Amino acid sequence: MHYSDVAIHGLLSIEDCEQAEAGIYNDPRNTVGGHKAFYSGYATYMLKGAEKKLQAIQRRSDSLFIKQLKQQHKEYLKEGGALDWSIWYEGEHFC
């Protein structure tokens, strides 16, 4: 899908964000040089607008993740506990 077809406020779950991201990466219209460059087999570059949209999607995905984590630990937080970020740090993101 073309990056301009994605509305950030319409992404209501992390899965929606992943699908939008994959759609942008797999559309030749989002690369410099279009179809010819996309199917050439050489390295291509994303359009600046597509790069900015991907960054916005990633920020949205991160905020949805934090919201989901807070909801899962709602009772623990009510008791005055703090979130345990070790789950996130031990994952593939920061190791």
Keywords:
95 residues; mainly alpha
Description:
By secondary structure, the protein is mostly helical. It has one domain. Helices cover about 55% and strands about 0% of the residues. It is elongated.
Task: Please report the total strand number as a whole number.
Answer: 0
Q: What composes the largest sheet?
A: none
Please give the share of residues in helix: 40-55%
What class, by secondary structure content?
mainly alpha
Give the count of helical stretches.
5
Which of globular, elongated, flat, extended, rod-shaped describes the shape?
elongated
Strand residues, percent: under 5%
Weakly predicted, low-confidence segments: none
Compute the gyration radius: what is it?
Answer: 17 Å
Kindly state the mean pLDDT as a whole number? 85
The N- to C-terminal Cα distance equals 32 Å
Helix and strand sequence: HHHHH
Question: How many domains comprise the coordinates?
Answer: 1
Write the layout of secondary structure elements.
Elements: H1 14-25, H2 34-38, H3 48-72, H4 74-78, H5 86-90
How do you describe this structure in short?
55% of the residues lie in helices and 0% in strands. With 95 residues, it is mainly α.
